[in-house]
Amino acid sequence: MAIGPTWVPTADSGHMGDTMRITGDGLYLIAGLALLIGAVLPRLLKRYAVSAPIAFVGAGLLLGLVVDPDRLSPIAEPELTEHLAELTVLIALMGVGLAIDRPIGWRRWQVTWRLLLVAMPACVAAVAGVGWLLGLAPAVALLLAAVLAPTDPVLASDVQVQGPSTGEGAEPEEDDEVRFALTSEAGLNDGLAFPLVYLAVFAATKGAVGDWALEWVAWELIGKTVIGLVTGVVAGRLLGRMAFSAPLPSFRLADSREPVLALAMTLGVYGLAELLHGYGFLAVFVAALTLRAAERAHDFHEELHSFLEQLEHILTWGILMLIGVAVTGGILEPLTLPGVLIGLLLVLVIRPLVGWLSLQRTPMRRSERWVTAAFGVRGVGSVFYLAYAGSDFAADLPWLWATVAFTVVLSVAVHGVAATPMMRMLERRRRGS
């Protein structure tokens, strides 16, 4: 059997300094090395102010020097980018839903509702307003704001709850309000960003606002959200019954000890919600919360969460390395000063400010409010939404990708460096008080 070349030169191979492009079987070597690095990096970086996401973006930058970046560009491969990001977010949503110990409720989740109902719309309005003032068309400014609206359940693992509390006498963890707030916010706002993305698409494609405003409010904002919520609750209850209290032991999923069932549950709930024309991201997270509530102390939750966490890490490594490859390949070339300003303002000013204001008069300490407000991590969710809606903005797509890529890399760098020292500072203050 013939074996293809593992590399080809991009120019005359006789010239020194030519860049070698790895193809074919060489990609298997790169994939293996990437997974090996991914297994080692978290331990190496645990004591330093450098997160694994930063390292993977850096590895992608180097990888872009030896592979063909045009073949891995999100602009050239929008469907691949969309589906890979979609799967990554889905796995993360089910994982964070299973990790949350706190029962859902209006008072228990008050910081979450503040971040979702106050901070998120305010961020969208501020980013869209800044974009419009900097010369963007209203629909383009609104799309960029909607794409950058959701905080990320994938890249924020350093500041999220670490896993479900299970076993005899397990109690919901109530003391770390920051981790709970960031986890629950990221779990819900990925689904709630969809209406805002559709708002931008409608503004760009359907003409005058009066022609489509009622349709957007009734269906995109309310109808699909309700379908997603109901699907998640019903599916979660059915899965909880099957997992822990099915009449026949052979149907009791928790007794099988098969963690791969977590993936089956994730894809099944998402597919059902999408077939019913609801928001699948929302349904998956709600189903995970409902399943978690069915039998909180059972250690099957830990097995499901652990499996999803490993799968999420693998997918996340791939996404981050592809972002790094795209940067090396020139995805930032169309970036302009307005794009840079929007990214900087969102990460360093807008989100921290509106987040802090939205958390006033909550039980959180002042330092906890500032940390929660500051860690609005942008990442894989933004990649998915732009790949999903970008075809309706073809003329502005290169600039949009450049701005989103810049903002994601900026968020990875800033939040990745700050996560460890900030969380340690909060822990010291809690112990001191």
Automatic annotation (TrEMBL):
State whether keyword Cytoplasm applies.
Answer: no
| InterPro entries per the UniProt record, alphabetical | Cation/H_exchanger_TM (IPR006153), Na+/solute_symporter_sf (IPR038770)
Subcellular localization(s) per the UniProt record: Cell membrane
**What membrane topology does this protein have?**
Multi-pass membrane protein
Major localisation? membrane
Q: What does the entry list under GO cellular component?
A: plasma membrane
Keyword Cell membrane among record annotations: yes
Report the transmembrane regions from the record. Answer: 20-41, 48-67, 87-104, 116-149, 192-209, 221-240, 260-293, 314-332, 338-358, 370-388, 400-423
Q: Which UniProt keywords apply?
A: Antiport, Cell membrane, Ion transport, Membrane, Transmembrane, Transmembrane helix, Transport
Any GO molecular function:
antiporter activity
Give one GO biological process term: proton transmembrane transport
Q: Which residues form the Cation/H+ exchanger transmembrane domain?
A: 35-424
- Domain of life of the native organism: Bacteria
Q: What is this protein called?
A: NhaP-type Na+/H+ or K+/H+ antiporter
The scientific name of the source species is Kribbella caucasensis
